[in-house]
Each structure stands twice: as structure tokens, then as C-alpha cells.
Amino acid sequence: MTVRGRLALAVLLTGLLTAVGVMATLALAFQRFEHESAYQRADAFLSRVVAKYDDLLDLQARDPAAFTQFLASLLLFEPDSQLYLLAADGTVLAHTGQVVLAPGFKVALGPVQQSAAAAVDVQARKLAPYVMGDDPEHMDADAVVAARALQRPLIRASGPVAGYLYIVCRKPGLPGASQALFRSSLAGPALAAVAALIVLGSLLAAWIIGTVTRPLRVLSDEVAAASRDGFSAAAAAAPQPALAPAVTGHDEFSRLRQGFHAMLDTLRVQWNALQRMDHFRRESVSNLSHDLRSPLTATVACLETLEQRWAGDTQRSADRHLVQVALRNTRNAAGMVRSLGDLALLDEPEFKLKPMRLNLAEVLDDIALRFAPRAQQQGVSLRFEQQGEALPVAAVDVELFERAVANLLDNALKFTPAGGQVLLSAGRHDSHVQVVVADSGAGIAAEELPHLFDRLYQARQSVAPATSDEGKGLGLAIVKRIVELHGGTVDVASTTGQGTTVRMVLPAA
Amino acid sequence: MRNGELEILPSRREVRVRGAALEFTALEFDLLLHFASHPGRVFSRAQLLDAVWGYTHEGYEHTVTTHINRLRAKLERDPMQPQFILTVRGAGYKMRDAPA
Predict the structure, then answer these.
(1) B69 and A356: CB-CB below 8 Å?
(2) Each residue's pLDDT tens digit, A86-109
(3) 3-state secondary structure of A463
(4) Which of A18, A86, A392, A488 is the 20 to 30 Å CA partner of A384?
(5) What is the ipTM of this complex?
(6) Residue A442 has what DSSP assignment?
(7) What is the secondary structure of A308-341 as a DSSP string?
């Protein structure tokens, strides 16, 4: 869940809890208020009754039936209440109401005594604003009750309590103050006020959250943009997009954004420095390669002259052998220098292909023709074959493509003995063109295969073996680079003793 | 000289195809002229390199491919199905025989 979402949820829950708390408090307060009012009314009523009739117990003893009627008449102005005459132990002697009580039914004395005591004792009254006690008609729940102690007239001033006058206040129908609360005139405005508070509070919270997290959203957009565009020259050169207004301010988010931009700037500077160094290195290699060509060419020329001069001289055969070794190694070095220079050129980011839409079958046929004399001299059969009917048309830089194929053919012819064959083929398959150079030569060891296109690896293996003229060298690295520049792939399969197959795949045009 | 819809005026170094004049670079024109002067005769890239460019050094044959394809792009209706400058597999290229 987003930070904004979590903040909003937290605020909403807090608001809800507050609202619920407030409403519960209100409900409880209202209920308490109701109980207090009821109790005070009941208490005042009892005071009046007891003040007027001081011989209630006697009256009841003399004529119980009439007494019950008398009790009922007292309640004329006290609806929702029931009166009970209790003996000192809580036994019900007489009562109003329709419910028939078992004889000897007792009411809990605790509340009775508490209420009776409160009538005379100011301290006690302060402690109990109202009293809850038994309701004989509904024994499952307490009701507000009040009571007065009664005495026999003759022993009035002192003496034990002879009985109680007990009143139970209960609203008929569903119990609970909650109904009253909802029906009262307080409910409407209160609910409206709470609802309004919730709505206003939510809007305010939403606005605050939005304002606070906006810098965070802007920052995360910037981070996303930076990670997408990277440090490519285009992105670095482009002016800052509109979503990055001046980063001012000192709060945590602003500092974070400032830090991020500072980091980006540092990285950009470092990246540019790195690219310049890389370019400088490539240029150095290219220059070096160029400069080395003349001395190497001169050396090769001198060595060739010596070799020729001593061709027929049997006395010089040992010397001649030395010269041949020197010649081989120098040619190898010259080849490497040339390849390094070529690779440096191909690696330049500004290097542009000059592609032309061509039928590759024609080009390959021509290349086979070009290598035909050499193949014939070696006793190796070389031919080109088109695979399939569709013309293998692709957009290629002719010079580079030919160089790549020439490098592959060079290798193939170098490692295929007399009597072997080299097959050049091209075919179109859906959206790409496949060019294959397959030879039946010595093959390449399995452990060498992964390193074939690795220029560093090849450079280290470049000590010219006796059989090779220029070594495998960097020819394949150049092929790979050329194929990559054309948006294609190259792979090699080989079995020692059987042959090698190099396959180039290029997008068709 | 004429070869079907192809018309070449060597002295003015002008070329017309189906009546419309076409522009060629110097090398392109020389190559076309060489082909047109020997209709039906096959030339390898090496031979063309020697005859038109004056090079004998191997390694520049790709430039012949480039120029042949440029000629085709200008002359032919569909360069991939050429009518004038034809490919002879295993041998090279030739200009078609002039239609009677």
C-alpha cells in the first residue's frame, strides 16, 4: 500500500475511533442523566408520601386489599413506576402492578438500604446520584429504584427499621437509554455535527497528506526517469524536464531531492570522464596500430628479401630457418596490429555503418570466387549454395560484411587439410537471413569455444604456432563486432577432427 | 548505344531509360559504359576492378558490389530481379544482349 494510502487509512481510523468514542460517551452520559432524573423524581415522590402517611405499615396490616388500591392511587401522577411495601427483611408485603409474585418474595436489600440511608445522610447522597436495584417484574435487569425506611408510629424516634417503601422506575417497552437517545431531540443535531466533522476532517487530512507527499511523488518520478534514461549522452544533454522545478526548501523531502540531484550530477560527471577515457584509449590503440604498420612492413620486407636471397644456398639453411621463424612472427604481429586498429575503429560509438540492401547470395558467390584460387591451391573444395527459394536479402555494409566473411573463410581454409571442403551458404527464414561457413577441418576444442570471440583471450594466445601464418588472432572478434553492428548474432559449433560451423544471423530486409 | 529501353550517349555522358534522363556519378557511368560496350560478356569483380578502377590489389572488390547495386537501384524496376545487369553465378556479371 502506498504511503499516502497508509496515511489516509490511519487518519480515517483515528477519526472513526474518535467519532465512535464521542458517541459512546454521549450515550453513556445521557443514560446517566436519565437515571439521575428518574431517581431524583422518585426520591422526591417517596419523601412526599412518607411525610404525608406515617402509618403505612399499619394501614397495610389492617386491610391489605384496600391498601393495594391505595398504593395504586398514589401512582396516578407517577407513570412507569411500581410501588412496593417491604418488610424489614425485604419481603414484599403489598405492591402495585399486575404481575403476581410468589409469597415471601424478597427484594435485594442492599440498594434499598443505600437509598434509604441517602435520604437522611447528605454524605451518602453525594456518593450515589442514583441507585440501581431489583425490579420484581423484570428480575433479569436492574432498574432505577428508591426507598424510604418506615417505622411504627409508636416507636418513631428511635428503634429499628420496620419496613420500607420501595419504588421502581422503569420505562415500558424496550429497555435501554439508547432508544431514548435516538428519539430525543438531541440525536439529530448531534449526528449531523459528527458527520460534518468527519467529512471536514477527511478533506483536511487528504489535503495535508497530498501536500506533504507531493515532493515524494515528484522525486520518485524523477528517479524513475533517471533509471529509464540512464546516463546516455542524449539524456544528459537534454534540458531538465518540467517535472523538476527548482528544488528549494529545507524539509526532509526537499533535502532528499537535492541529494538525489547532486548524486545524479556526480554520476554524470564521472560517466562523462569515463567515456572520454575510453575514447582516448581507443584512439591511442588506433594511432598505435597505424604507427606500427610502417616499421612492421619494413621488417617483413627485409626478412622476405633475406629469405629469398638465401633460398638456394645450402650453407645458409640454418640462417634461413631463423629468418623464416622471424618472418612468421613478424607477420603475426602485423596481423594483430592491423586487427587491433580495426577493432578500435569499429568500437567507436560514432562509427556508422553504410548499409545497402543486397542479395547476400550474390555477395557470397563473389567472395567464393575470390577465394577460389587459394582453395584450389590447397586442394580444398570451396563452393556457395543458396538455401531455399526466397532471396536472402539484407541491409549490410558491403565492405564490413565482406571482411567478416573473408575472416571466416580465412580461418576455414587455414584449418582444413587437402581433400577437405568448405561450404558457404545463405538462406532466408522468416524475418532473418542466415549465413553459414562450414568446414571439414581440424575443429576447435570444446574448452576453447567459449573464448573464441574473447579478444583478450585471443590476444594472449597469439604466440605464433609453427603451422599458422598469423594465428587465429582477433579475426573472430572482428566478425562478432561487425555482426553486432548489423543487429545480428553469431555462434560457432565444432567437433574436433570433424569440422567447424560458424553461423551468422542477420535481420532480413 | 542502345540496349532495349536503355540509351547511352558516351560522348555526352548521358543515360536515358524509357526516355527519362538519369544522373550517375563518374565511376557509376564508367562501369555502366564498360558493361554496355560488351553486351553478353561476363566479367568477375576482379576484372571489373582492373578495367574500370585500375586496381589490381585484392581487397577492394566490395566497391564493385556497391557500384553494381547502385546502378541497379537507378536502372532497374526491381533491383532484386534485374533486367539489364545480370548475375552469372560462379562467374560474375554481364549486361544482357541487346534485344533485336
Answers:
(1) yes
(2) 888 888 888 887 778 887 888 888
(3) coil
(4) A488
(5) 0.91
(6) S
(7) HHTSS-GGGHHHHHHHHHHHHHHHHHHHHHHHHH
